[in-house]
Design goal:
globular; alpha+beta; three-stranded antiparallel beta sheet; single chain
Length: 357
């Protein structure tokens, strides 16, 4: 597969996170010769937070994660690539339960401490025999690095995606590393296809959830490639607490710094997903100023970004700004036509409702 022309030159330098051990193996969910099963073991006491798709046709994995998230603890993450296990009824649910039970038996934890995600083709039940054989293989595998983990969760992606940031909390430096996959079905309405952030900072689950929800809204929830929302979209954050510091409320020293670092990782990953959009040749940021609210501005921006006519103009490098006017007008949001101004980069093409000569 040809790498996206918008891909970064190299994989980023991401530090290890104490309390996070990743392994990969071949479960052979598809006829390919590559690792397609990821297993991440998390230290006891790890906090978890997450956001899942708003699709009304979610996968059993999404429903499993939704049920486990309120408990606030995690010991493992399992990611299957090549088969989304979505729209598979009771057989799909049985596969998720079998995976969680097997991992729980291996680690001596509760099945609800095991988070399971799958990505790939819709409508094919995940084979339980392949899943269990793959787990046996991954339990025996040597630990792997971030690049191997990021590559194993890919499906139609053309390059592995990761990002890192750090913050000072309680006088100590804490690290954050995230990996993601996504290329098609990108208009997340929550997160991206799959994204995971790991940190050695200790964070109370409720606080981690609040910060992750906020970071998601301004990152993964503000991107689009093709306007479609997946059945499997899941964003999870895991805080191992191995750095020896813990955040409990927004008033704690260092919370703002940690929240900023979390947002930075999510933003970097969201940008990488757009850069790997299926067939993408341009990376564009749509900025809307002067709307009556942030929510209104976002709806106008998405109307512009999702417009096929705007996309073709951008792809063809034709500054047809009339299509921007069209997209603003159809968004259904308050807009003063005679005050509208449009800029491409630093070039103003329309100002206060009139074309600029």
């Amino acid at each position: 597969m040809t790498k996206s022309p918008l891909a970064p030159e190299s994989f980023p330098d991401c530090p290890p996170i104490a309390g996070v051990t990743a392994r990969i193996a071949r479960a052979r969910y598809k006829l390919w010769d590559r690792c397609d099963l990821s297993f991440v073991e998390l230290a006891p006491g790890t906090s978890v937070a997450g956001v899942t798709t708003r699709s009304r046709c979610p996968s059993p994995e999404v429903e499993w994660c939704r049920a486990a998230l309120p408990l606030g603890t995690a010991r493992a993450l399992v990611v299957n690539a090549g088969n989304s296990n979505a729209f598979t009824g009771h057989r799909g649910r049985a596969a998720v339960e079998a995976i969680a039970a097997k991992v729980a038996g291996q680690l001596g934890c509760q099945p609800s401490d095991v988070f399971v995600c799958s990505t790939g083709v819709i409508g094919v039940p995940l084979p339980i025999d392949k899943a269990e054989a793959g787990l046996d293989a991954v339990f025996a595998a040597e630990p792997c690095g971030w690049e191997e983990l990021a590559a194993t969760i890919m499906t139609t992606d053309t390059f592995p995606k990761a990002a890192a940031a750090s913050a000072i909390v309680g006088g100590r430096r804490v690290e954050l590393v995230g990996v993601a996959k996504g290329s098609g079905m990108i208009a997340p309405d929550m997160a991206t296809m799959l994204a995971y952030v790991f940190t050695d900072c200790g964070v109370e689950p409720a606080l981690l959830q609040a910060m992750l929800t906020h970071a998601n809204e301004a990152s993964f929830n503000a991107i689009t490639v093709d306007g479609d929302t997946s059945t499997s979209d899941t964003l999870l954050a895991f805080a191992t607490g191995t750095a020896g510091v813990r955040l409990g409320s927004m008033d704690d020293a260092g919370t703002d710094a940690f929240a900023a670092a979390l947002h930075d990782v999510c933003r970097q990953l969201a940008h990488l997903v757009v850069r790997d959009g299926e067939g993408a040749s341009k990376f564009v940021t749509v900025s809307v100023n002067g709307a009556e609210s942030d929510a209104s501005a976002k709806r106008v921006a998405l109307s512009i970004a999702n417009s096929p006519l705007v996309k073709t103009a951008i792809a063809g490098e034709d500054a047809n700004w009339g299509r921007i006017v069209m997209a603003v007008g159809k968004a259904g949001e308050p807009a003063e036509r005679d005050l509208l101004s449009i800029r491409f980069g630093g070039v103003t093409v329309a100002d206060r409702g009139l074309a600029v000569e």
